[in-house]
Amino acid sequence: MKRVAFCTFGCKMNFHETAYMEEQFRKRGYEIVDFSEKADIYVVNTCTVTSVADAKSRKALRKAKHRNPEALVVATGCYSEVYPFDVECVKEVDLITGNVEKFQIVDIVEKRLKGEIPRLYLKGIWKEKRFYPLTIRHYEGKTRAFLKIQQGCELFCSYCIIPKARGRMFSEEPLKVLEQVKELVDAGYKEIVLTGTHLGGYGLDLDEDINLAKLIEKILEVPGLYRLRISSVEPIEFTDELIDVVTSSPKVAPHLHIPLQSGSDRILNLMRRRYTGKEFREVIEKILSKNPDICIGTDVMVGFPGETKEDFESTKRLIEEIPFGYLHVFPYSPRKGTVASQMKDSVSSLEKKERAAILREIGKEKSISYRKRFVGKELDSLVLSSLEDGKSVVLSGNYIRMVVDEELKPGEVVGVRLKEVGEKREENYGEVINRAVLCNEGAGTGKRA
To answer: Cα 223 to chain center, whole Å?
Structure first.
C-alpha cells in the first residue's frame, strides 16, 4: 500500500481541501501518514498570502524530498497557482498543480507517476466556470466539520493576491448545502464551520433570492445540528439581517471574525477596502448591542505603502477602543501582481516590526481581558482531542480553548467552568461540571453562570 503525506499552509479553505484530498487518496487504497514520516507521495498544499508563506511552502517541499529522495513531491494550492514558475525553481518538486487540480488529485498524481503528464500541470483557476463542491464525510482525527459553500473572490483589494489564486466567485446551491449539512450531522459532527474565499458574498452569483443570512436560517432548521460556526466575513457584508441571524440563535457560535486591516480611512481607501473606520466601528457596535459576550476577532495590517505614523496611530486607537477577543497582526508583504506592489513610500522593515509588536501586545491584553470575563462561568464546549497525560482539549462556542484534567471522548459536548486564563490564547484551564449539555433545552453555544 502506497503512503501519502500532506502538509498544509494558510486558510481554513486550504485545510478543508486537504481533508478532501486525503479522503480521495484513502478511497483509492492509499495510506495517509504524518508528514514527518517516510512516504511515497508528499503533497504540500501551499499558501501565498505573504512572502513568509511562500518561504514556508518551499521549505516544506525541500524537506519532503530530503525525507525520501525516491518520493513524488507535489506542490499544489495558491503559491503554485499564482507563481508556478517560482515553484519550478524548487528542484525538489516533481509535480506542480494549482487549486483546480486538487479535485482530481489522485488521477493527476497517478498520471505523473506513469510519465503521462509534464511536471507543470496547471489549467488556471480563472478559466473555471463552476463551483467545485467538497463533500467530506470523514475528517480523520477531527471533531469539527468544515463545509465549503462558496469559492473565489472578486473584491481585488489592492494588496491581496487571493483573487488571482482562487478565481471567480461561485456559490453552492442551497439545497446541496443543506444535503451536506444533514450528512455531516448524521455522521456525528457536533460543530459545522461554514467556509468560503469570500463567504459574505454567498449567493451573489445564484439566480434565486438567497444570501448568507437566508442560508444560515435554513441550515439552523436541520434536525440534530448542535452548533454552526461562521468563518471570516467582510464588515461591509454584515447587514442588519445577517447580524440578527448570527446573534439570535443559540445554535450559532458566538464568535465572528471580521477583518479590519487598518483604522486609517486614507489607508483603507488605498487598500480598496470599501468602508471607513467609523463604519467598521458601527458594525461592531451593532453586533455587541445584540450579544455583548460574543467573541470578535480581526485581522490588521501594518506597514502598508505610505502608512504614516498618524495612520498607524489611527489604527492603534481604533483597536484600543473596540473589545476584540483576539487580533491577527500582519506586516505588509508585497505580492507581485497586485496594485499595492507598484506603490511607493514603503515603510521600513524595522518600522513594520515595531508597529506589529505594538499591536500584538495590545491584542494579547485584549485577549486576556476577554477571556477573564468568563472565569467562573460554565461554557458549553466541544471536546477536540485527548492528550497523552489523561487530559483533554475543549473549545467553547465563544472560541476559548481549554485544557481539562479528564480524559474525554473527542466529539462530546460538555459544560466546562473556566478556572484559569493564561497569557496565550490556548493556555486556559477548566473543569467539567456538566456532562448533559445536549440534554438541555436550547443548549448550543453560550455561557451559564
So the answer is: 26
Residues 63 and 175 in one domain: no
Domain count, the chain: 3
Q: CA angle at residue 259 from 255 to 265, to 5 degrees?
A: 140
- How far, in Å, CA of 300 to CA of 320, rounded? 13
Nearest to residue 177, comparing CAs of 197, 150, 201? 150
Q: Tell me the Cα Rg of the chain.
A: 22
Burial class (CB in 10 A: 0-12, 13-18, 19+), 118: exposed
pLDDT of 438: 73
**Among candidate residues 357, 372, 387, the one where a domain is terminated:** 372
pLDDT at residue 314 tops 50: yes
Q: Identify the bridge partners of residue 442 per DSSP, sorted by sequence position.
A: none
Q: Domain ends where: 319, 342, 372?
A: 372
CATH of the domain at 121: 3.40.50.280
pLDDT per residue as tens digits for the range 29-59: 999 999 999 999 999 999 999 889 999 999 9
Cross-strand partners of 432 = 416
Is the pLDDT confidence value at 11 over 90?
A: no
Residue 210 CB neighbours (<10 A)? 17
Bridge partners of 170, per DSSP, are: 151
Same domain as 149, residue 120: no
Q: In the chain, what is the straight-line distance between the N-terminal and C-terminal CA atoms, in Å? A: 53
Give the pLDDT score at 139: 58
Same domain, 44 and 171: no
Cβ proximity of 216 and 183 under 8 Å:
no
Whether the CB-CB separation of 15 and 6 falls below 8 Å is answered with no
| Rounded Cα–Cα distance for residues 6 and 194 (Å) | 23
Q: What are phi and psi of 296, to 5 degrees?
A: -115, 120
Counting Cα atoms < 13 Å in the Cβ hemisphere of 55 gives 4
- What is the DSSP track for 182-245? HHHHHTT-SEEEEEETTGGGTTTTSSSS--HHHHHHHHTTSTT--EEEE----GGG--HHHHHH
**CA proximity to 55, closest of 28, 24, 86, 33:** 86
13 vs 312, more confident: 312
Grid cell of 424 as nine digits: 496565550
